[in-house]
Specification:
heterodimer; A: alpha+beta; 23% strand; elongated; B: mainly alpha; 3 helices; 2 strands; mitochondrion (chain A)
Chain lengths: 132, 208
């Protein structure tokens, strides 16, 4: 099904992306931040590894991320795109501006927490009234 | 019936399952074009997630800002990289590198010259010594040869003198008759034995 010529094809109109390549084991993901061609498979041969991201928090309750800023600068200068998660991570790291969705998600969560609080407060009030 | 688009190499028949059920690993597009809709999904109307217009406006503004900043960053990085490349190839970095290399070259050449000089001194001394040794050897060989020559000449002269001495006893045409008569007059008898100590024995076994 996968002919050898498919793998050796010269890419026409492809571009470089900085994205997360998944590795690790079952129920234990681990991402490598990688510069690869757009058409390559997610985990297959990449051009250069630019960092890593561990989505599961460690014993100190921290999620570890690593970046090689020099090389990221080089690839962005050469015209590489970034995927959404990579852009979000870079925004949180301070290298990029904060992604709009990060801010929006945070606002949504805050609003949801506020409504929950208001609802529980009103529920408690109703229960108190019934008790009296 | 339900023909599964099996990505797995094993054919559907070998899998332990009733024919009607579709049993493959979760793969996008399990159902083919002709498969009917599932009973639980018959009345389903798919709606997109609800959009808050106020939030959407704010979000659009944020996105424009974000893309602006990103584009600026990209151009900035590009400029930095070009500048660095230019510096390295043409500008200050290249000059410094050239200067350093020249200095290194000069120092290495100086080292090389010093080394060559030293080796030359040593070599000259060695050559001198060898020349002297060869000179001595030649002289010795000459002396030896000279002596050999002299010995040879002496030997030959001795031979000549001996020969001259012997020449007096030669038989010449003038002496011929005389010598023949002499030989006939004096018969010599060699019929004797001699041992290592020099004792002569004239009496032999077959004496008649």
């Amino acid at each position: 099904f996968m002919s050898p010529s498919f793998l050796l094809k010269k890419y026409h109109g492809g571009h470089v992306v900085i994205r997360l390549a998944l590795g690790g084991a079952t129920n234990r993901p681990f991402y490598r931040i990688v510069a690869a061609y757009n058409k390559r498979a997610r985990d297959s041969k990449y051009i250069e590894q630019l960092g890593s991201y561990d989505p599961l928090p460690n014993t100190q309750n921290e999620k570890l991320v690593a970046f090689n800023y020099e090389r990221i600068k080089y690839w962005i200068a050469c015209g590489a795109h970034t995927t959404k998660p990579v852009a979000k991570l870079l925004g949180l790291a301070g290298f990029f501006p904060l992604h709009p969705m990060t801010v929006t998600e945070a606002e949504r969560r805050q609003k949801a927490a506020l409504t929950e609080e208001v609802k529980t407060d009103s529920q408690q009030q109703v229960e108190q009234k019934e008790a009296l | 019936m339900l023909r599964a688009l099996s990505r797995s190499p094993a054919p559907v028949v070998s899998l332990l399952s009733p024919r009607a059920a579709v049993l493959v690993e979760t793969v996008r597009g399990r159902k083919s074009r002709t498969d009917p809709k599932a009973k639980s999904k018959l009345g389903r109307i798919k709606t997109p997630p609800p959009v808050d217009p106020g939030e959407m406006v704010v979000l659009k503004q944020r996105y424009t800002e974000y893309s602006l900043i990103l584009r600026a960053l990209r151009l900035e990085f590009k400029e930095q990289m070009l500048r660095k490349k230019y510096e390295e190839e043409v500008g200050s970095v290249a000059e410094e590198r050239a200067k350093r290399e020249e200095e290194e070259h000069r120092s290495l050449m100086a080292l090389n010259d010093a080394e060559n000089l030293r080796m030359r001194e040593i070599r000259e001394q060695r050559m001198q010594q060898e020349a002297e040794a060869a000179e001595l050897k030649k002289r010795d060989a000459d002396i030896l040869r000279q002596q050999e020559l002299e010995n040879y000449i002496k030997e030959k002269e001795r031979h000549i003198l001996l020969l001259q001495e012997e020449a007096k006893d030669f038989i010449t045409p003038e002496n011929l008759d005389q010598r023949i008569e002499e030989a006939l007059d004096n018969p010599k008898n060699y019929n004797f034995a001699i041992d290592k100590e020099g004792r002569v024995v004239k009496r032999t076994a077959f004496q008649r």
